[in-house]
């Protein structure tokens, strides 16, 4: 009887694999640092397959495994799992699903990392029991996933959920995509660091103790907590733009819950979550705001693995 699922969470600088029971206990995990910018895709996919083989042996062989799933940065096609042109990985036209299946001799469900994170929340996290859920990750970039009627909404080719490239301020910062005022250019960790760097060059700024010339989102958060005005203004601006983005999504999808994840959001939730909730509630129609939950993920950095397991379970129950 299959008792386990194996998940692979592929990021720009790491591969995280996990062996999990079907009720969501992570029994074993392996974290392998990678350099997607310099290592060829085939080298990294080999490492992914090797790691899965080790976990499979640990489980007692392939017959013990219910399914395999891999979460990868987008844009990635669904269901064919082709990475198109990933800014995170620097990969172009890599047939990830095909290459993994070839190496493992097993079917592998491959999905966009933020889509699977949304599904992970739906099965194991804050979104349990909510059939209409929006997941937004705020880290170095911003992305998301949509659960509609209990399943991932992929769009035609897997491209749905690119919330980071929703314009929230047409007069805002330029985004790498070429547009102006994308949510990612206004409220990601990268954007926060950029805003801090801009204030640093201004006269009479409060960043005098920063000798390195680089201020991270984490440091902006610490300065804001300590009452530093420029940091406070940056956080306020991030809250404004994020709440505009969330309110747009709430009006479009009418979810029961919005789950926020990503390193920046989890790190700054103490100074952002309450204001975000209040502003979103002010901005949405009563129909959309009634009963609406806005929460931070409880799955932490394992959210990708939980997402993979959720995809395996959903496939089983089809
Ligand atoms: Zn953009």
Question: What does this entry show, briefly?
Answer:
With 318 residues, this protein is an alpha/beta fold. The chain has 10 helices and 12 strands.
Give short descriptive properties of this protein.
single chain; 318 residues; alpha/beta; Nucleotidyltransferase, domain 5; 2 domains; five-stranded mixed β-sheet; 41% helix; 22% strand; binds zinc ion
Any overview of this molecule?
The protein has 318 residues and is an alpha/beta fold. It has 2 domains: 4-121 and 301-316, Nucleotidyltransferase, domain 5; 129-298, Nucleotidyltransferase, domain 5 (2-Layer Sandwich). It is built from 10 helices and 12 strands. The chain has helices at residues 41-59, 96-104, 113-124, 183-187, 189-200, 217-225, 229-253, 263-283, 286-289, 303-316; strands at 4-10, 14-21, 26-33, 65-72, 82-86, 91-95, 108-112, 133-138, 142-148, 151-152, 257-261, 293-296. The strands form 3 sheets. The protein has a 5-stranded mixed beta sheet, sandwiched between helices. α3 (113-124) packs across α10. The longest helix is centred in the last third of the chain and has 25 residues, at 229-253. The chain starts with a strand and ends with a helix. The mean pLDDT is 94. The chain binds zinc ion. Zinc ion binds next to loops. The site of zinc ion (ZN) has 6 residues, from loops.
């Amino acid at each position: 009887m299959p008792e386990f699922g194996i998940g692979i969470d592929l990021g720009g600088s790491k591969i995280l694999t996990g062996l999990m029971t079907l009720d969501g206990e992570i029994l074993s995990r392996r974290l392998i640092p990678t350099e997607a910018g310099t290592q060829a895709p085939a080298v990294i996919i080999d490492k992914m397959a090797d790691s899965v083989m080790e976990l499979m042996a640990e489980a007692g062989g392939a017959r013990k495994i219910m399914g395999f799933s891999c979460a990868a940065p987008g844009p990635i096609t669904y269901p064919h799992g082709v990475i198109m042109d990933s800014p995170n990985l620097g990969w172009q036209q890599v047939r990830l699903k095909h290459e993994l299946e070839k190496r493992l001799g097993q079917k592998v469900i491959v999905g966009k990392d933020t889509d699977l994170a949304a599904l992970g929340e739906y099965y194991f996290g804050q979104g349990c029991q909510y059939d209409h859920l929006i997941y937004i990750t705020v880290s170095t970039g911003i992305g998301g996933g949509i659960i509609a009627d209990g399943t991932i909404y992929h769009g035609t080719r897997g491209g749905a959920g690119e919330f980071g490239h929703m314009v929230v301020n047409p007069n805002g910062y330029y985004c790498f995509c070429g547009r102006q005022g994308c949510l990612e250019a206004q409220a990601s960790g990268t954007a926060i660091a950029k805003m801090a760097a801009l204030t640093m060059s201004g006269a009479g700024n409060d960043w005098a103790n920063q000798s390195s010339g680089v201020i991270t989102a984490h440091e902006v958060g610490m300065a804001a907590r300590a009452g530093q005005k420029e940091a406070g203004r940056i956080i306020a601006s991030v809250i404004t733009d994020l709440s505009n983005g969330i309110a747009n999504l709430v009006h479009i999808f009418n979810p029961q819950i919005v789950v926020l994840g990503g390193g920046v959001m989890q790190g700054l939730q103490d100074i952002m979550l309450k204001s975000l909730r209040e502003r979103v509630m002010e901005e949405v129609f009563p129909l959309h705001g009634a009963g609406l939950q806005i929460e931070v993920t409880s799955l932490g950095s394992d959210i990708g693995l939980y997402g993979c397991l959720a995809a395996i379970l959903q496939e089983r129950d089809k």
